[in-house]
Amino acid sequence: MLVLEDENIIAMLLAEVLKGMGHSVSEIVASEADALAAAARCRPDLMIVDARLRHGSGVSAVKEIIRTGFVPHVFVSGDNLRSQALWPGAVVINKPYRDVELARAIQCVLSAAPLRTNARNH
User: What are the structural domains, with CATH classification, of the chain?
Assistant: First the structure.
């Protein structure tokens, strides 16, 4: 799992919550450029994405990352992203959110995600 969050304390707390839910957080990145590099390097199976980053945009990073193959993702934001033109089926939860809302959003995107092929499945 890849976490895009530019607030260090929030990123650390989020990683702990996700680990408590049974997820493995491979990387936490704070910028759009770092997100693109991390996604290419670790090929995440899920991304939790702060929509606004200090350096770049989480939304733009996701658009670029999924050009080469879909990765389930949940947007988290302090802004009202629902009014922005995202894409059909985009899952957004607003900050502050509760763990149960995050778990529900993750389950939603994972159950709707197309199956990804990898070498271990062959």
Answer: 2-113 (3.40.50.2300)
